[in-house]
């Protein structure tokens, strides 16, 4: 007697990555895309496992045997491109290092590089057998060559080889032999690659189903070979709540790829001072910490993997920003047996001291290494820092922007931009180096909601992500509200990892989640502790009077000052545990307290008790909200139609394939994807 079909193990898909060394940024992106591939697409989630074949894969180290050339070592010890299911080839300005004479084409000509050999090996197999699926990408951005570069002749020669290589992709009559996917920036490449791989995976799954589907399975049958399912790519909550994303959050950071490209481009063009300027809640700190810095660590700019990075905020250790800056150099000062207070005093009086510290940091680094100083929340210069330090610290930043091995990146709330311009030393750097950051668009917000969830194995009830977008509307400060509501929703997920409408409604939606959470935390306290809320928060909130009106900002205050009584400390402790307040170490390791995010200032009880009514935290607009709501609906409808068409195109007719005992239908569909047009 036959039983039901056995559960199918995931289909193992081997992907080969080939390229010269000038597209390191794209290689890193490609490996991240392939790591996410088993999770990203709901049509194939749980059905595939991906093995990436790449010489620079972090967990793979191909030994270079003395009797072999590097290309031989890779070829012998790794699958050839022609033996894989998908081959990705990326070119920009270089062809690569020539292979030794023993590697030659059928016509006797030498291969120009290992990348060309890998590309042609894959194309030859694809022409003969239909396998592998070959995706060739070409970056269209003009490469930048300095006229005084001693290697400019070699670079120009490489650039010409690339152009000649792609010229060979056309037949003598001008018709196309091989399709190429062009892209203008790494962010565009990542988007295209993700979409193309999802298409090809659907085709491979359809072909696999057509070949393997059987009516029933004997009761005692076991699978011949089993591929273990991919474990979740992220453990724990994939939503940050009110905290900013950091470098450890790169796998779950989405939606800001183009903005990250923009910062990379500025630095690659030689910018030494960049100010990321945006409204409260626009994601400035996250863009730098989880977008820019990891891309630099992946060598997005040649040599940037060797750059050192330091982050601090001007007021993190109190009213003296020079102490905070000196503390950021703590490790090198310890090695030099120097006291931070002494160094801070010198930084205040001698801007040249920063050049000395930079040289000490880079002393044992390669000669091309630089130091990137990330000054986060520069508005603290006006909300925490004492007035007497503002001018001298501004002078130091302006001087630092002229040092040859130092780059400055700052984040700044837009409503404090005019205050910075009032500092004469900062006016020039800000006007030349400002990078305006707007609130994320509907498409970016949708990615921020859904893609981290997919990596954790979470699923949304139908139309719940759209509900987030509609409820958030077009408000500038919606991003932290969405992140907080998602974090709270994660805590109320079902045992199967389902995020539901009923739980969302129980939280109060996007705009009500943080208010309800704050109110619940407040009501859980005893009445004596509740009574301290006005005094505690008056110490943590600063109201700045501007031409546009009153603007509220958060401050950073010593715990003993903001909570001098046991009752006040109980309130601070409860709100810290609820992640509404944050406690860190200040000067002399004394605990300091700050509001986790300005979004908390929208809490009605807080506004009433502290007198914040009519105080601006972020701009809003009902017209923008209506436009964003309509845009969200249109985007999601478009995505659903696209997913439905993909399902029908690739996997809508598996029974017909099986009925005729062949996979011709699937193979025909696959051949359409042998090269995806632009």
Report the CATH superfamily of the largest domain: Toll/interleukin-1 receptor homology (TIR) domain
Low-confidence runs of at least 5 consecutive residues: 618-627, 653-678
CATH class of the largest domain: Alpha Beta
How much helicity do the residues have? 40-55%
Our estimate of the beta-strand percent is 5-15%
Number of strands: 17
CATH fold-level label of the largest domain: Rossmann fold
- Which oligomeric form is depicted? single chain
Give the strand line-up of the largest sheet. Answer: 2-1-3-4-5
**Whole-Å distance between the termini?**
52 Å
**Helix vs. strand class:** alpha/beta
Question: Number of DSSP helices?
Answer: 28
The coarse overall form would be: globular
Q: What is the annotated CATH architecture of the largest domain?
A: 3-Layer(aba) Sandwich
User: What is the total domain count?
Assistant: 3
Question: What summary fits the major beta sheet?
Answer: 5 strands, parallel
Compute the gyration radius: what is it? Answer: 28 Å
């Amino acid at each position: 007697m036959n039983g039901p079909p056995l559960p199918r193990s995931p289909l193992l898909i081997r992907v080969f990555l080939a390229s010269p060394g000038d597209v390191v940024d794209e290689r890193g992106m490609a490996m991240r895309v392939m790591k996410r591939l088993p999770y990203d697409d709901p049509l194939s989630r749980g059905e595939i496992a991906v093995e990436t074949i790449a010489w620079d894969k972090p967990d793979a180290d191909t030994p270079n045997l003395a009797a072999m050339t590097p290309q031989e070592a890779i070829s012998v010890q790794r699958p050839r491109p022609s033996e894989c299911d998908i081959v990705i080839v990326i070119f920009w300005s270089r062809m690569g290092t020539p292979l030794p004479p023993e590697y030659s084409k059928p016509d006797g000509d030498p291969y120009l590089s290992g990348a060309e050999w890998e590309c042609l090996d894959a194309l030859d197999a694809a022409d003969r057998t239909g396998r592998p699926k070959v995706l060739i990408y070409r970056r269209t951005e003009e490469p930048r060559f300095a006229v005084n570069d001693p290697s400019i002749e070699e670079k120009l020669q490489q650039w010409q080889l690339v152009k000649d290589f792609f010229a060979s992709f056309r037949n003598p009559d001008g018709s196309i032999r091989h399709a190429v996917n062009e892209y203008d920036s790494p962010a565009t490449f990542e988007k295209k690659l993700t979409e193309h791989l999802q298409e090809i995976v659907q085709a491979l799954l359809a072909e696999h189903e057509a070949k393997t589907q059987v009516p029933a399975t004997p009761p005692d049958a076991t699978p011949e070979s089993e591929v273990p399912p991919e474990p979740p790519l992220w453990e724990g909550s994939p939503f940050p709540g009110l905290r900013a994303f950091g470098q450890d959050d790169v796998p779950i950071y989405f939606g800001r790829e183009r903005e990250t490209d923009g910062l990379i481009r500025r630095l690659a063009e030689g910018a030494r001072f960049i100010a990321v300027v945006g409204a409260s809640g626009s994601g400035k700190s996250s863009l730098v910490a989880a977008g820019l810095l990891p891309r630099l660590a992946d060598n997005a700019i040649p040599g940037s993997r060797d750059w050192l990075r330091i982050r601090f905020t001007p007021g993190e250790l109190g009213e003296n920003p020079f102490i905070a800056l000196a503390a950021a150099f703590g490790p090198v000062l310890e090695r030099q047996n120097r006291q931070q207070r002494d160094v801070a005093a010198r930084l205040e009086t001698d801007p040249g001291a920063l050049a000395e510290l930079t040289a000490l940091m880079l002393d044992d680094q390669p000669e091309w290494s630089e130091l990137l100083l990330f000054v986060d929340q520069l508005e603290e210069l006006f909300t925490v820092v004492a007035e007497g330090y503002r001018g001298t610290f501004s002078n130091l930043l302006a001087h630092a922007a002229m040092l040859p091995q130092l780059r400055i990146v700052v984040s700044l709330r837009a409503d404090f931009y005019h205050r910075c311009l009032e500092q004469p030393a900062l006016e020039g750097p800000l006007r030349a180096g400002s990078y305006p950051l707007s609130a994320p668009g509907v498409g970016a917000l949708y990615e921020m909601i859904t893609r981290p969830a997919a990596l954790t194995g979470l699923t949304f009830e139908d139309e719940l992500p759209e509900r987030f977008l509609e409820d958030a509307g077009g408000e500038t400060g919606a991003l932290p509200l969405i992140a907080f509501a998602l974090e709270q929703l994660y805590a109320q997920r079902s045992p199967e990892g389902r995020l539901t409408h009923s739980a969302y409604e129980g939280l109060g939606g996007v705009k009500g989640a943080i208010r309800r959470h704050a109110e619940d935390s407040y009501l859980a306290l005893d009445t004596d502790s509740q009574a301290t809320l006005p005094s505690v928060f008056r110490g943590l909130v600063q109201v700045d009077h501007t031409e546009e009106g009153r603007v509220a900002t958060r401050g950073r205050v010593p715990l003993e000052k903001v909570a001098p009584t046991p009752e006040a400390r109980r309130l601070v402790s409860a709100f810290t545990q609820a992640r509404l307040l944050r406690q860190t170490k200040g000067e002399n390791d004394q605990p300091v307290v700050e509001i986790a995010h300005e979004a908390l200032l929208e809490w009605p009880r807080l506004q009433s008790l502290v007198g914040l009514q009519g105080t601006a935290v972020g701009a809003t607009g009902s017209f923008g909200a209506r436009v964003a709501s309509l845009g969200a609906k249109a985007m999601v409808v478009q995505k659903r139609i696209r997913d439905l068409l993909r399902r029908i195109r690739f996997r809508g007719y598996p029974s017909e394939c099986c009925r005729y005992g062949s996979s011709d239908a699937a193979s025909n569909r696959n051949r359409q994807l042998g090269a995806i047009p632009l």
